[in-house]
Design a protein that fits this description.
Chain B: This is Acyl carrier protein. Chain B: InterPro entries: ACP-like_sf (IPR036736), PP-bd_ACP (IPR009081). The complex is a heterodimer of chains A (254) and B (77). Chain A has eight helices and seven strands. Helix content of chain A is 38%, strand content 13%. Chain B has a single domain, classed as Non-ribosomal Peptide Synthetase Peptidyl Carrier Protein, Chain A, CATH 1.10.1200.10. The chains are: A alpha/beta (254), B mainly alpha (77).
Chain lengths: 254, 77
């Protein structure tokens, strides 16, 4: 038997949310390439199936659910109990918008927190219960954003929720360390995905050029984010917890 | 519908004075990228209307914009 490589995920069960598209989809694919058994979560079963068809190996499993429905999530995740333990979670499900302050209603604020924050905490709580997280330890990765650290006009809702996760991850890291559960964030800059292509800054060439100029290494690809996540899930990062890894082509370097 | 539209339009651009339908809205001091985003959000929230960028570029006056919104809102009913 060959020696275990610290960067590979063979023998690990990894839950990936938002696995139906963009960064989440690539995370599922990348985890499969390095040997993980992946549990794919998102609302849309058909698109989860599409992700599955792009993955290596056939031992993965799709688990369609709406993570904003706490009770439904708890019920569906029960299928993961006593699987032998979950070794990692990449939580990529989330929403974004560009909306000026004048349009931020109480409803929009609640909806953003419900989707980007409440669902993340609920998921983490459920998956770190006894019988869920692997006894030898687990790694939780929140996909956050450069907008959780720096700002931009119109990004208040997104910044509020991503910043909440960046802050929350530190306390979670301390609280869960005795269970050998690590909690980290990966904060991407603008990555070419369905979410960013539908964003207002992608609607005209001038805005897109401005966004590009903020990234000294150019816009990112989903693989760039997925590779950082694989590292944080692997044993290679076993001494890393409570951090926020900027994967942003240099966006926040200036 | 016209009154509702004008109110929504002024709210998006944060204009606190009377406006005229023949005004070229890009000439307003208040017209900027955030105002435009706010307008897009208001049209979507209040009229369930989305206007593609290439169509929007051809709208010059407040009246042009109103007519486009009215046409699209009517098509939904």
């Amino acid at each position: 038997m060959e020696a275990h490589h610290p960067f590979d995920l063979r023998g690990k069960v990894i839950v990936v949310t938002g696995a139906s598209s963009g960064i989440g989809r690539q995370c599922a694919i990348s985890c499969s390439r390095v040997g993980a058994k992946v549990i794919l979560i998102a609302r849309n079963e058909v698109r989860l199936g599409e992700t599955l068809s792009l993955m290596d190996h056939s031992h993965h499993r799709i688990l369609p659910m709406d993570l904003t429905e706490a009770a439904e999530t708890e019920e569906k995740l029960a299928a993961l109990k006593d699987l032998g333990g979950i070794h990692g979670v990449i939580h990529s499900a989330g929403i974004s918008t560009t909306l000026p302050l004048r349009n931020i209603s109480e409803d929009k604020l609640s909806n953003f927190f419900k989707t980007n924050v409440n669902a993340s905490i609920n998921l983490t709580r459920l998956l770190t219960r006894p019988g869920y997280a692997a006894k030898e330890g687990a790694s939780v990765v929140f996909i956050t954003s450069v907008m959780g650290v720096v700002g931009e006009a119109g990004k208040t809702l997104y910044s509020l929720t991503k910043g909440a996760l960046v802050a929350g991850a530190k306390s979670l890291a301390l609280e869960l360390a005795p269970k050998k559960v690590r909690v980290n964030c990966v904060s991407p800059g603008v990555v070419v995905t369905p979410m960013s292509s539908s964003a207002v800054y992608s609607q005209d060439e001038a805005s897109l050029e401005k966004i590009r100029s903020y990234h000294p290494l150019g816009l990112g690809e989903p693989e760039d984010v997925a590779n950082a996540c694989v590292f944080l899930l692997s044993d290679a990062s076993r001494w890393i917890t409570g951090t926020n890894l900027m994967v942003d082509g240099g966006y926040t370097a200036r | 519908m016209k009154d509702k539209f004008i109110e929504s339009f002024k709210e998006a651009l944060e204009i606190d004075r009377p406006i005229t339908m023949s005004d070229k809205f890009r000439d307003y001091d208040e017209w900027n990228s955030l105002g435009r985003l706010s307008l897009i959000a208001n049209l979507d929230d209040q009229f369930d209307v989305t206007i593609e960028d290439e169509v929007f570029q051809k709208l010059i006056t407040v009246e042009d914009l109103f007519n486009e919104v009215a046409k699209r809102a009517a098509a939904k009913n």
